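Students often ask why we bother encoding 3D structure as a string. The short answer is that it lets us treat folding as translation between two languages. Here is a chain of 407 residues written in the first language.
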Amino acid sequence: MEALRDRFNSIKSLGDLQPYLIDTEDGESPTLEFKSLQGYSFDKNNVGDTMANLAKEICAFLNTGGGLIFWGGSYNKTTSQATISNASTENLSDFLDKRLSIMVEPAPKGVDYDWIKDNDDNRALLIFVPRSDFAPHRVGSWTIKEGEKAKEKITGRYFQRVGTSSQMMSENLIRAMYLSSGHIPTISIHTELEIPTSHSDVIYLKTIVNPDSYKFISQYHNSNQIAIMTSMSKVKLNGFDELNRFNAWHEIHCPDPSVSRKSIYPKDTEYTLLTSSILPNGDTDFDRDQEIIDGNVHLTPQLFSRIFAIATKSTFACDAVPLVIKNRLYILGNSRYWQYEDYTTTRMAVLMGIEEEFNTEIYVARPYQDDLLDDRDGVVAMEDDGRLRVSEIVATLKSLQEFTRTE
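And here it is in the second language, the structure alphabet:
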């Protein structure tokens, strides 16, 4: 954790924080959390919630690999920068000094904090939370009555850091932590897509691991699958149709088992575990429209040119980590878009509820981001207007849940 402590010591301004932001909807990482504050955050009706929400994040970092909380800060999606978002008049350091010992049980050790200012002298508190040697910790059960809405769901409970969010721990995991000297590794794997704008005849697949900060893992289970779709609007919910060859799950095999099972080493940041690609192959004598050859997905040129969306599913488990499944849906659009220099895929706030419902991160290509049709409330459009509909995304996710892997 010395590296995280050094990182905290080196951050003296908003600019110093910038290198540690990652390209997500909220800029957060497994070791960085933003918590904005409103003008009413510390009034008598909300101070309990404010205190509980902060205690939850402190607890989660103590129970995993440690982290930094930017209390009174947020992420500006437009500028991709951290910003001060503290509309309160509370002295945050005094508030934390007086309450930290009751916010988390057992009382944490090694928590530190310092002020961060912007050019207008607005201030937020950067809080350093180390990995605890006395885990598991839980949020305290204080008797403050104000602001019960969030407090009643948080106080007295155990939390851990999973990816970029803090989640409640299961009873089995809590028990395991007590029996394993307080530290359960938090490791997950996901598959990312990358389309180089310089040429559109290949799609790269990167298997990314979010490692534990301390635990070295040599024996584990990892499975990475993809589903390729040429359309969204034709997906049926109650049976197979003409797309079943394209949206069935296919395992991505690495040609060298020693590579696919190479050890996962401790690190504070994610890194690439293995790579492969999706590419057209006109020379291969396909029995089907797609084949896995040497760990790469080979498609007929006709199918490759018709790709509209790709789903990925990655699973990870080891003796110390229960099964973690990471699902993503990339809505890429027509292949002619891929050649645009500003082509990107981004998560959208309007789809966050759907992401939670289907446990899937949804990445939408730039051409559809400004013109996405949210038709869940009966809004309709011309059938051929070219707009992406939220109902189509939901139908696709439901269909993907029903399809099983085929050979």
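Translate back mentally: The longest strand covers residues 321-331. Keep this in mind for the problem set.
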